[in-house]
Amino acid sequence: MSIDKLRSLKEEVIVAITNVVDLGQLNDVRVKFLGKKGPMTEIMKGMGKLSNEERPLMGKVANEVREAINAAMEEKHQALESAKIEAQLAHESIDVTLPSRAVQTGTTHLLTQVVEQLEDLFIGMGYSVVEGPEVEQDHYNFEMLNLPKDHPARDMQDTFYITDEVLLRTHTSPVQARTMEKHDFSTGPIKIVCPGKVYRRDSDDATHSHQFTQIEGLVIDKHVTMADLKGTLTAFAKKMFGEEREIRLRPSFFPFTEPSVEMDISCFKCGGAGCNVCKGTGWIEVLGAGMVHPNVLEMAGIDSSIYGGFAFGMGPDRIAMLKYGVDDIRHFYTNDVRFLQQFKVKD
Ligand code: 2U9
Predict the structure, then answer these.
(1) How crowded is residue 84: how many other Cβ atoms within 10 Å of its Cβ?
(2) How far is it, in rounded angstroms, from Cα 153 to Cα 171?
(3) Which end of the chain is less crowded, N or C, counting CB atoms within 10 A of the terminal residue's CB?
(4) Ligand 1: which of 159, 173, 292 to mutate, judged by most atoms within 8 Å of the beta carbon?
(5) Where is the Aminoacyl-transfer RNA synthetases class-II family profile domain (predicted)?
(6) Which residue CA neighbors atom 9 of ligand 1 most closely?
(7) Contact at 8 Å (CB) between 206 and 327?
(8) What is the mean pLDDT of the chain?
(9) Does the structure show a pLDDT above 70 at 156?
(10) Count H helices, E strands: the chain?
(11) Residue 80: exposure state from Cβ atoms within 10 A (0-12, 13-18, ≥19)
């Protein structure tokens, strides 16, 4: 092996290293030229056969060549490693400017929306919201509301009884009865609305559900008149169904109010001319109300010769069905998201 051959071997290896495109090929070059059977090993092995004069120069050049090759190898190795990392980073990079995938969010249930609208409306008129137990005592659900033991509304057919004395409340009125019983008039009048779930034994169909919602109002003070009730209900009708609404009170009967009325609003669809919503009458029934029966006041320990007031009750299910054109009460309780999503509220 001459010095020239050694130098041209170096050139050959450097060119081979330059042309390498990945770490695998670089390793092939290493094995081919520097491996056990490669020319470099041969050269090193052949050193021993050289004369004493030739050996130092050949040894020096061979070391230079080996170092140059090793340096080129190392440089290429690092270049390929960094290229590999660069490629990986480019591949794994995240474009933070891309729009994200839409997250499926829930929405406030339509019934909850309507109950909240009603609460806000009455809070705006100075009422407080009061809630109470759904599992109730017969005493608060019936007895205190002037529904004695033999009253037809207490029929086993209509009420879910748990024991003889405990039941699922059939209306939210027991919440008012409990409030009246513990009220201290030196702190001011009673002015409350009581929303919540109520239960009645019923066969479910498009207009009946064994569990539905109610919101009832109660005002007790000195000098409360039916004119106050009428003004309150007119304000409710206009705020809930439009400023153009008129109301109509028809005589009715409830055991807990006397006199009792039912309230109709002028039809919000046809304005009173007659249509499918008001069934041709021009009027839509929306709630019941009346002046609290003296028996109810006395049973709660309130002197009916000094205090009196009015009460009203309505079904948010019915209000929501009318206002949003829902044709089946069961939609509120079967939780089909296709129904619920139609009433999505914007936050
Ligand atoms: C007390 C005294 C009086 C609440 C009232 C009504 C009339 C009424 C129904 C309408 C449809 C309930 O949702 S509905 O089924 N309610 O017509 N409710 S007066 O009177 C009370 C309540 C509590 C202590």
Answers:
(1) 12
(2) 11
(3) C
(4) 173
(5) 110-322
(6) 313
(7) yes
(8) 93
(9) no
(10) 12, 9
(11) middle
190-199 vs 166-168, strand pairing mode:
unpaired
Count of residues in the chain:
347
Residue 157 has pLDDT above 80, yes or no: no
Side-chain-side CA neighbours of 137 within 13 Å: the count stands at 6
Q: Tell which residue, 262, 153, 253, has the closest CA to residue 200.
A: 153
**Mean of pLDDT values over 221-231:** 98
Residue-wise pLDDT tens digits, 176-190: 999 999 999 999 999
| Distance from the first to the final alpha carbon of the chain | 85
pLDDT in tens, 325-341: 999 999 999 999 999 99
pLDDT band at 50 (very low <50, low <70, confident <90, very high): confident
Inter-helix orientation angle 110-123/226-241, to 10°: 130
Which residue puts its alpha carbon closest to atom 23 of ligand 1? 173
How remote is the CA of residue 209 from the centroid of ligand 1, in Å? 18
Helix (H, G, I), strand (E, B) or coil at 107: coil
Distances (CA, A) of 347 to 104, 105, 113, 185, 344: 14, 11, 13, 40, 9
Output the CATH code of domain 110-343. 3.30.930.10
What are the E-state strand segments in 166-256? 166-168, 190-199, 211-221, 247-254
Cα 256 to averaged position of ligand 1 atoms, centre (Å): 8
Cα–Cα distance measured from residue 61 to residue 6, given in angstroms and rounded to the nearest whole number: 8
The residue whose CB lies within 8 Å of the most ligand 1 atoms, and thus the one to mutate among 170, 171, 224, 319, is 171
Site residues for ligand 1, CB cut-off 6 Å: 145, 171, 173, 176-177, 180, 214, 216, 218, 254, 256-257, 287-290, 292, 296, 311-315
Counting residues of the chain whose pLDDT is more than 70, the rounded percentage is: 99
